């Protein structure tokens, strides 16, 4: 996840790991369902908002679109359902 750089100011390595695990799960978990992927994205966003609110804008502009794109690609979708969730 080197391109995502550290999104959170507080304890960056912890968040790097969290983001990497979330992205890997979205891309490769063979049993992942669409609804679970959407919940994972929202849970990751809430975690960033709770632990590093100053990093939320960076997360939403850089990471969130990539997570959604990964999920959409995974399920062969053009439009992401519930992508306005916050």
Task: Give the topology.
Layout: H1 12-28, H2 34-51, H3 56-74
Span from first to last CA? 23 Å
Q: How many distinct helices?
A: 3
Largest sheet: none
As a whole number of angstroms, the C-alpha radius of gyration is: 12 Å
The dominant shape is globular
Q: Can you tell me the number of structural domains?
A: 1
> What ranges have pLDDT less than 50 throughout 5 or more consecutive residues?
none
Specify the structural class.
Answer: mainly alpha
- Give the proportion of residues in helices: 55-70%
Strand content: under 5%
The overall pLDDT, averaged over residues, is 84
Number of strands: 0
* SSE pattern, N- to C-terminal: HHH
Overview of this protein structure:
The protein has 86 residues and is an all-alpha fold. It has helices spanning 12-28, 34-51, 56-74. Helix 1 packs parallel to helix 3. The mean pLDDT is 84.
List keywords for this structure.
single chain, 86 residues, mainly alpha, 3 helices, globular
Question: Could you provide a short overview of the structure?
Answer:
The protein has three helices and no strands. By secondary structure, the protein is an all-alpha fold.
């Amino acid at each position: 996840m080197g391109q995502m750089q550290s999104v959170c100011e507080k304890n960056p390595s912890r968040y790097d790991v969290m983001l990497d695990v979330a992205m890997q799960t979205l891309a490769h978990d063979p049993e992942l369902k669409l609804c679970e992927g959407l919940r994972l994205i929202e849970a990751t966003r809430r975690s960033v908002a709770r632990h590093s609110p100053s990093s939320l804008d960076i997360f939403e502009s850089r990471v969130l679109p990539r997570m959604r794109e990964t999920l959409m690609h995974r399920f062969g979708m053009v439009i992401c359902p519930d992508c306005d969730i916050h």
